[in-house]
Design a protein that fits this description.
The structure is a homodimer of 171-residue chains. Chain A is mainly alpha-helical. Chain A is built from 6 helices and 2 strands. The first copy, chain A, is extended. Chain A starts with 25 loop residues before the first helix and ends in a 6-residue tail after the last helix. The interface between A and B is large, with 72 and 71 residues. The structure holds a DNA duplex (30 and 30 nucleotides).
Chain lengths: 171, 171
DNA sequence: GTATCATGTTACTTAAAAAGTTACGTTAAC
DNA sequence: GTTAACGTAACTTTTTAAGTAACATGATAC
């Protein structure tokens, strides 16, 4: 299924993760899935996506369901069913994807009370939240400047560059 | 202890929090404490700081200990002991404070595998991590552009502005 | 010197949210 | 009607700071 193989020859679905961090990886995972969906014309099942992401179909359905609500993908049941794109990836920015996920909490850092009565505390919170807001804006801007189609294009360039370095053996 | 009172007349140590989020609030809390330390010449005990922050002395010691390691504050034991500044707040940037805390994990978002073999997955991760890195840089730059002394100055301006609006009642 | 105050440190529990898992109902293709 | 696939609900696991409790150590006051 994984159309882009590394030079080791393993597809993404065979890679075992030893990750143990419990950070929110939905954005990068979904981007990965969308790119695969853009490279095929047949629906991909939750089970196959689960193998790509090293997780189980139920979690895939839960997350892909958010994309369906946003009109980015659709799904069909039954034989030959699965997930497929509803939008052109060239028109789909990474910010759109992040928004479709519900703009998940970006920061592990925050401020203490909402509107403290201590003016010094308020100043501390304002400064902290201000820096976080500036960072969030930068994050969103960076996401908005790229489409999922751009990512595919970059991957193709990488492959071409690799092939140019290492010519295919002909026998 | 709280030198800057709001117009309600409550000091920070009397405010009850109903917060339940478990985000890392050490940066804003420590900024708050540092400003108070800058406004007095006597050491402040962990117990008093705990009341300021609506938490307990043990947690205060744990967190303030990170600042001591960075040379920002010192502490003395026994009667009249507590925490006091080792540096001029005007020379202390918010980035210094963040660094003293060990640059705590900034994001709740991450990417999946470290170096996936699937090129599409790698592309997804690169894009995600790139946006996060840009955001982190913006965060650090914003912190570096301000000193804790600046925050105090801002608070003083606010107080002056408030007093200008609402003259003190004289009898 | 002893009582008290305060830090230093360790060990444990709590809380939040995504991830991970299990189970089962529903729908579509064959 | 059997099988494949999504839809959904309920539950457990994981991670980390926060929160808590306890006690040793050191410094001041008397």
């Amino acid at each position: 299924m994984c159309l882009y193989l590394s030079h080791e020859g393993f597809s993404c679905m065979l890679v075992l993760l030893e990750e143990t961090m419990r950070t929110d990886s939905r954005l990068s995972r979904i981007l990965h899935v969308l790119m695969h969906l853009g490279e095929t014309d047949k629906p991909i099942t939750s089970e196959m996506i689960g193998k790509m992401l090293n997780t189980n179909p139920s979690l895939v359905r839960r997350t892909m369901g958010l994309l369906r609500q946003a009109g980015i993908v659709s799904s069909t049941k039954g034989h030959g069913g699965g997930w497929y794109l509803e939008k052109q990836l060239a028109e789909l920015s990474l910010a759109d994807v992040y928004a479709a996920l519900g703009e998940p909490k970006l920061f592990a850092i925050g401020a203490s009370g909402d509107t403290p009565t201590c003016l010094l505390e308020r100043s501390a919170n304002t400064a902290t939240l201000g820096a976080l807001d500036a960072a969030r804006q930068k994050f969103l801007d960076t996401l908005a400047a790229q489409s999922v189609g751009d990512l595919i294009k970059q991957s193709r360039d990488e492959i071409a560059a690799y092939r140019a370095r290492t010519p295919v053996e002909t026998e």
